[in-house]
Structure formats: structure tokens, C-alpha cells
Amino acid sequence: MSIRLPRILCLCALLVSLAAPAPAQTLAPGARRDLAVLATAYPGLMTAIEVNAAGQAVVILADGTRLPYDDGRSKSPEERLNAPDIKDMLAQPYPLGPVTAEPALGFSPGRCRVEPFFLALYGHDKAAVTANCRPVSFLGQTMAFNTRFGAADAFGRAEKSLARLVAADPSLRRYLLPASGGVVWRVIAGTHRLSVHSFAAAVDVSPKGNPYWRNLPRGTNLLPTRQAFPAAAVAAFEAEGFIWGGKWSEFDLMHFEYRPELVLLARLGRGENLPLADIGGLLRVAR
Ligand SMILES: [Zn+2]
Fold it and tell me: In terms of domains, do 128 and 230 share one?
């Protein structure tokens, strides 16, 4: 028996390995693309992706957070905002470029955020976020911006483009200044969800000059207001991985936030051939 037992164990191990799903094959193409986009936008954030035999994936982040890619629940638009999974967070395609039409009600790509994902990205409380920030100049002002995953560097590059635009056309200043940023640890008005301003990964440009949807009557035709905002300024932010709240149904004209995963998805969606991170090494068979 002392000789045969290891052989039996080897046989068992072989049978288990044959029965186990190959994660790369069971992960659906959409999930695979979304997770590769996240790995590209935020290198090192995901430490593993567990996939079960049904192809359901759980993402494990560097801080130990475990998040389902798809929790399998059907949700109302409000439930999607309050308790999204990763698939929900990436589901609405962000439209790059000038605004050409009023978005459908509820179409607000980027407004759906998985809060534990952002806590893992930028810091779990105000002190941790603050420690991750550095001052960045913004058209003569200075504000703290989160350095994690290249956010502050991207903000600095966007600012350089904006500075060139403003130098060429000083009338743009009134759309952009004064700006409000830094670590503003607070929930979004009317909700229990943390604002992305909590993480110092967003900026509000000219908050008094640019209208916010909650301050306007329902049914207001907003398209001219959206289109009046300088498209070149929006493009300068988008080129560096920022999205604009002026493209949301619940529009927030002053608001830009760092969401490189959504900009990357948008660029892939319009046919750009962009290299994505290989997530093969992160895939594990769920037990
Ligand atoms: Zn904002």
C-alpha cells in the first residue's frame, strides 16, 4: 500500500484536473474584454480572477476585496446605481467626441460605480486618500489629485492641453474657472453613495457657471446647454482618460472624472486596435 497510494493520489489529481474547467475557455468574451480593459487601465489592481464551471467570475483586488463580475441579479436603473456589479459599471458605452443628441433617460455612462472598487483604487478613507494625493496645478489654481494608477499625471497632461486652449481663446476661461477639486469626502447629493470627489479623482470646473441637473426643472431641453460647453475642452480631458458629466442624462456639466477604463472601452468600440493587458495569468479555477 505504501507504494500504491501515491499512484492513486496522482490518478485522483489527474481526474480532478481533467474535470476542472479551463478558466480561459469558460470566461465569456464580454467578461474577458471588460476584465482585460480594467487590467489595462489599472495595472496591478486585480490580483486574481476566479472562474467557476458556469463561467461566473469573481475578481480579487490588491486590497483583498472580492467582487463578482456579474452578480446575476436583474436590477432597475436605480438599483443598478445603488448596487452595481462590474458588468453594470461598464455596460453603458461612453460616447467620445462632441454631443450630437440628447441622451436617453437613464443613459449616464460612468455614473454607475462599484464603490469597493474605488476604495481599492484610491484609498479606504479620507486620510488614506489624502496620503495618496499630490498637488497639481490647474490653470493658475492648485488642487490635490490622487496619484494612484496615473490619475494625477493624466490630470496634469489634460491641464497642459487646456492651458494651450485657453491661451489661444481666453473666452474659454469662464467655462473652466474657478475649478473645485481635492479630497471632498462626501456622498452624492440625494444618495448614500460616495462621490468620486471623495477620492480626489475628479474636478468640477466653474461650478457656479455650469448647471447641474438637480437644479433645473425636469423636461428642460438641455441639448443647447450641453453643446455650448467647449467641445475642445471636453476632448482635452477625454484624451487623457477623463469622462464628462455633460454627456449624462442626469447631466453634470461641471464634472470631469478619471475613468480610463470607460475611455478605453469607447476607443475599442469605435474600432481602434489597442493592446490590452493579458489576463491569462490572473485566471484561477474557483473552488
Ligand atoms: Zn463633480
Answer: yes
219 plus 144 within the same structural domain? yes
How do residues 5-62 score in pLDDT, each as one tens digit? 455 544 444 444 444 555 656 899 999 999 999 999 999 999 999 999 888 999 999 9
Residue 84 lies in a domain: yes
* Residue 155 sits in the same domain as residue 219: yes
Indicate the pLDDT class of residue 204, thresholds 50, 70 and 90. very high
Strands 283-285 and 141-146: unpaired
| C-alpha cell read off for 89 | 459599471
Q: Is residue 180 part of a domain?
A: yes
Query: From ligand 1's centre to the CA of 256, what distance in Å?
Result: 7
Ligand 1 centroid – CA 213 distance (Å): 12
Phi, psi of 254 (to 5 degrees): -85, -10
Q: What pLDDT is recorded for position 267?
A: 98
Q: Are residues 150 and 191 in the same domain?
A: yes
Q: Do 227 and 121 share a structural domain?
A: yes
Q: What protein residues have CB closer than 5 angstroms to ion ligand 1?
A: 204, 255
In terms of residue numbers, what domain contains 36? Answer: 22-94+274-287
How far, in Å, is the centroid of ligand 1 from the Cα of 198?
A: 10
Find, among 229, 243, 2, 25, the residue nearest to 113 by Cα.
243
| CA 152 to centroid of ligand 1, rounded, Å | 16
Single pTM value for the model: 0.90
The total number of structural domains that make up the chain: 2
Distance CA 81, CA 287 (A): 30
